[in-house]
Amino acid sequence: MDRIYQKLRNLDAYPKINEDFYSRTLSGGLITLISSVLILFLFFSELGLYLHKVTETKLLVDTSRGQSLRINFDVTFPAIRCSLLSVDAIDISGEQHLDIRHDISKKRINAHGDVIEVRQEGIGAPKIDRPLQRHGGRLGHDEEYCGSCFGGEMSDDDCCNTCEEVREAYRRKGWAMTNMDLIDQCKREGFIQMIKDEEGEGCNINGSLEVNRVAGSFHFAPWKSFHQTNFLIQDLLDLQKDSYNISHRINRLAFGDNFPGVVNPLAGIQLMHDTPNGVQQFFIKVVPTIYTDIRGRTVHSNQYSVTEHFKKSELTPLDSLPGVYFFYDFSPIKVIFKEEHISFLHFMTSVCAIIGGIFTIAGIIDSFIYHGQRAIKKKVGIGKFG
């Protein structure tokens, strides 16, 4: 057993020196003090890095498919009235949605930007007294109202009781309403007068769109219900003779949910145009993004880059109708952000490197100073007695 102990003692890499052989110096004390302060400073710096979360970024090929995309928007048009402003969407699969009203609200604003009225799309049509029935007569005393769709009925049982329902029926047929004075519901609801009453107003439109996850476009245009391809824009001039000023401010435009650090480059921009009937185009590249926080919660969202182009527009042809157009496509690369802490082993390795490295360097410096002092003393001593 003593032999084993002796072998273990021979492996000691830290042989002990008798304290009688120690030589403590002033320079050694100063170096020790400075080294200790430096070690404490670097230790707490490393501890802060260990406690602070870092974000790791990865790029992968996006193999996801069959998903939908939510587009959140908030856009203000200071010179276009809400009654004429519509939101339309179309994608490369051929699916199109005209005059979208679900999950969208509009705010009428005056010239100073103050809100006049908040209007939920498709809700709140005024009631009418003794309207014209589908068979041509007026509503009887005990008769239930069923208004005509003026050719837009999909079946014999369809009824259009409001101007909005007639417009919806025409929209399903792919028709445009070119003369609302002939539509009983619109005439008695005062739709044309409502448009005239909004003269000089602007509109804030906000909400969200649920679209297929394929390349497509959506746009805001001041030609509501008059954008069918078999009608010219001249038909709209019965309602408004003035040109359209598409100046606008994008308060928010996001493809998916927000996550820490996301930057939406179009949020907050304002584009004012002196040229009437212009076409503002934004070409957007959407980058799928997955963000996982330190607690493991995951957000599936998107980032995007954008370029823009403005061109003057004439009243014809239809492909140059004034409005604000967003064309989006998807990047084949997916970005993954993951929050995480530095591992404890990495932290301990860094701490050991700090302590060992500083003590080693301090020892070299102290040894250099000590031997330099001894050499000087030796030279001085030789000079005295030589």
From TrEMBL:
Its cellular-component GO annotations read: COPII-coated ER to Golgi transport vesicle; endoplasmic reticulum; membrane
Q: Which domain of life is it from?
A: Eukaryota
Endoplasmic reticulum vesicle transporter N-terminal domain boundaries: 8-97
One Pfam family in the UniProt entry: COPIIcoated_ERV
Task: Give the main location.
Answer: membrane
Domain Endoplasmic reticulum vesicle transporter C-terminal residues, every copy: 149-366
Q: What is this protein called?
A: Endoplasmic reticulum-Golgi intermediate compartment protein 3-like isoform X2
Provide the protein's localization.
Membrane
InterPro entries assigned: Erv, Erv_C, Erv_N
Q: Which organism is it from?
A: Populus alba x Populus x berolinensis
Tell me if Cell wall biogenesis/degradation is a UniProt keyword of this record: no
TM region positions:
21-44, 344-369
Q: Which UniProt keywords apply?
A: Membrane, Transmembrane, Transmembrane helix
